[in-house]
Specification:
The complex is a heterodimer. By secondary structure, chain A is of the alpha+beta class. Chain A contains 9 helices and 12 strands. The chains are: A alpha+beta, B mainly alpha.
Chain lengths: ~400, ~80
């Protein structure tokens, strides 16, 4: 393995105009030097063999190669900037001899953005891989290899309307920002007037977001006695009405009772529906591979893969401010549905699962919550009321 | 971050990431389209959004952490070094 790597490295090197120097200067020149010192051939072989067990030799070669490669004008070696390689000696915990190896960490991100007047699209791809490899495979460490691949296609529209007279607007916004930075009381008349002017100059519009991404995940219960690998497609949908009293915000029916509470408590001077808290949605079309699910096996006699749809939506809005405490309402709903579930699964009421949780929460950590339903792998439906306090240790 | 209205700690990590992505895009739009900011040298849209997302999805981070991060990503209108 070590020889293969050296050959690959040297082969890699010889593809470029600069590499000859590395081999010449660091190995051959050293051998020549030893010969001038009257060292016999057997001793030279022993010294060179010792050197090839030393990670510093490989680190030196690698560093030299990277320096030369990234200095060249060619873009073909640009990806090497994202690759970190370090040669090291692995020492096994038992009485095995130490072994030469390498640790590597490679992160590659690619993104293509397409911006138009009122929309922004993107394709993003990322590959990250890291690990430790001993050149003697019997001595590979336990944290061997880890590789992640992500792809996402996303589209945004709206958000901010560009002004035709950019320079004047930008300059005015800049002046307002500087004035606001000097004001300590943001509830003062001066601050309120500046914020009002700021929002009049910064024209916000409805923002829409949708994206599609492949999904790979592992689901399990808490003791990992039941596990399943899930692959599929995730679709995200989101909308925000950033401007007050925008027609889109009236569709946020979940915020109506809280708008009333904000009006009653004097938090808002008018009945105002928050378009920025419209619930977002995530849809998953999954293909589930139940590798360890004893319940499923006992019901249908196998753990064959099955298709599943998952739906999740969440909502959070501001209720009121009590002294220095901000009070929020939070809710989350998840629904899982097995498509074409076998008869035994349906009769056991395992075709679908749903889980709903809601909570009142203050910024200091106090909360009251209620949850109902179950997630896949939960043993039974539960209704849980809880009250508590989260303390932040700074 | 979990004191801000967008961060619903009851949601799955996928939903929190989704909300943070929408906020990061809106912040980027407000700065560049609405306020005339440009990216710092060596920063592009990928780096700007990735940088903001790393803060927005971390419930232990504060707004000042986000501000500090953003300061390194954008050159604001009239900003002098």
């Amino acid at each position: 393995m070590k020889k293969i790597f050296l050959l690959l490295l040297l082969g890699f090197i010889t593809l470029t105009c600069f590499s000859q120097q590395i081999a010449d200067k660091q190995i051959n020149s050293f051998v020549e030097f030893l010969k001038t010192q009257k060292v016999n051939d057997a001793e030279i072989t022993k010294i060179v063999n010792g050197l090839t067990e030393n990670p510093n030799l490989f680190n030196g070669l690698w560093k030299n190669f990277i320096n030369q490669a990234t200095k060249s004008d060619s873009l073909k070696w640009k990806f090497l900037n994202d690759l970190n390689v370090q040669f090291k000696t692995f020492q096994a915990t038992n009485n095995q001899p130490s072994a030469l190896g390498m640790t590597y960490d490679f992160n590659f991100n690619y993104a293509k953005y397409i911006e138009k007047n009122n929309s922004r699209g993107s394709h993003t791809f990322s590959l990250s891989t890291k690990g430790n490899i001993a050149f003697n495979k019997k001595l590979n460490p336990s944290d061997f290899l880890e590789t992640k691949v992500n792809y996402n296609w996303a589209q945004f529209s709206g958000g901010v309307i560009k002004s035709k007279d950019d320079t004047a607007i930008f300059s005015r916004l800049n002046v307002i920002r500087h004035k606001l930075a000097k004001i300590k009381d943001m509830q003062s008349n001066e601050a309120i007037a500046l914020w009002s002017e700021f929002s009049n100059n910064l024209v916000l519009s409805n923002q829409f977001y949708y994206s599609i991404a492949p999904k790979f995940s592992l689901e399990s219960n808490q003791d990992f006695s039941k596990t399943q690998f899930v692959e599929g497609l995730t679709i995200d949908l989101g909308a925000k009405a950033w401007k007050t009293n925008n027609p889109l915000s009236y569709w946020n029916i979940f915020d109506y009772p809280f708008a009333l509470m904000r009006l009653i408590t004097g938090t808002d001077k008018e009945f105002t529906i928050y378009g920025s808290t419209i619930p977002t949605v995530q849809l998953n079309f999954d293909y589930v591979l139940p590798s360890a699910d004893s319940t499923r096996k006992s019901l249908i006699g196998n753990t064959n893969p099955f298709p599943r749809i998952k739906f999740e939506t969440s909502f959070r809005t501001f209720i009121t401010r009590v002294n220095t405490e901000n009070i929020f309402f939070n809710a989350d709903y998840r629904f899982y549905y097995e498509v074409n579930a076998p008869e035994a699964i349906r009769k056991a009421n395992l075709r679908s699962d749903s889980y709903f949780v809601m909570a009142l929460q203050s910024t200091s950590g106090f909360y009251v919550s209620y949850s109902i339903g179950k997630l896949p792998f939960d043993a039974r439906n539960d209704k849980v009321y809880s009250i508590g306090f989260n303390y932040k240790f700074n | 971050m979990n004191d801000l209205t967008f961060y619903n700690a009851l949601g799955s990590s996928g939903l929190i990431q989704q909300q943070a992505t929408i906020i990061a895009d809106q912040i980027d739009s407000i700065f560049r389209d609405g306020s005339g900011a440009k990216y710092e040298n060596g920063v592009d849209r990928t780096k700007a959004k990735t940088g903001m997302l790393s803060i927005l999805t971390d419930k232990s981070k504060l707004v000042k952490d986000l501000a500090s991060n953003i300061d390194g990503l954008y050159i604001f209108w009239g900003e002098t070094k």
